[in-house]
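Researcher: Please predict.
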Amino acid sequence: MEYKDYYKILGLARTAAADEVKPAYRKLARKYHPDVSKEPRAEERFKEVQEAYEVLRDPEKRRAYDRLGSNWQAGQEFRPPPDWSREFHFRSGGSGGDAGIFSDFFEQLFGGRGFEFRSGAAGSRAARGEDVQHRVEISLEEAYGGTIRTVQLQSPEMDRSGHLSSRTRTLNVRIPAGVTHGQRIRLSGQGSPGAAGGQAGDLFLKVAIRPHPRYRLEGRDIELELPVSPWEAALGAKVQVPTPGGKVTLSIPPGSQSGNRLRLRERGLPGPNPGDLYVSLKIVNPPADDPSAKALFQRMARELSFDPRANLD
């Protein structure tokens, strides 16, 4: 029977922390999943990755495996220590239907995937399913008003005979109004199914809000650059401003300058603490592309004692 170096299979150091195991597994499971992988020996490598993860994710199995020591080499002839079953008390938890899923090495040490761990009295050990994370992309308007997204999830599954398949699930998910970029939405029990009757994991939807051609998001606050004419800025005006919730009236104070920032309270993303909408003014000059426009600018140049660079002296 060949020794399996589970740390090497997952690309981990023997000192790897528990929270490093799942990311390493997910990366390799995606790489070698037979339904999508073009890698040589993809199905074989996928099984190895699953087996390594089954051991290293479980504290009891990992502790037992680590007791074998670090001097073994992958592929080296191996036999379990004589006192293995007495010290760790692993045994098969079924009728042998798991045979073929994992290697002989795993079967000898842990007795199959549906193992029982005895501490005094024997009993089946249920395992909670994995949590699943899925990215969902929405527009800023959908984040403002809420929306419903249809999410398709594909999960690799292996039956008791060791055959790999991919199961597709379709969920209609409600995205609440006021969701922010990067926020995670938890759907309890919608992750991977548990083993031996264990509860299913959770599904976490990570929300990504697409960049908007007009608005810029800062948390729940929304930024908008608003073009204004020179006379609106100089004399003051009331103008219509677009927001994700519809147009509102904004009062521009007399004497405003480009870059001045005005706030529309609670016009950002909604929520228990709604955001604000910040309007940055940008003065836009009309084109001097006809004689009357040129004459008006020339008159302003003559009659207004204004030097925009006076503070540079």
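Model: The chain has three domains: 6-117, 132-209, 215-303.
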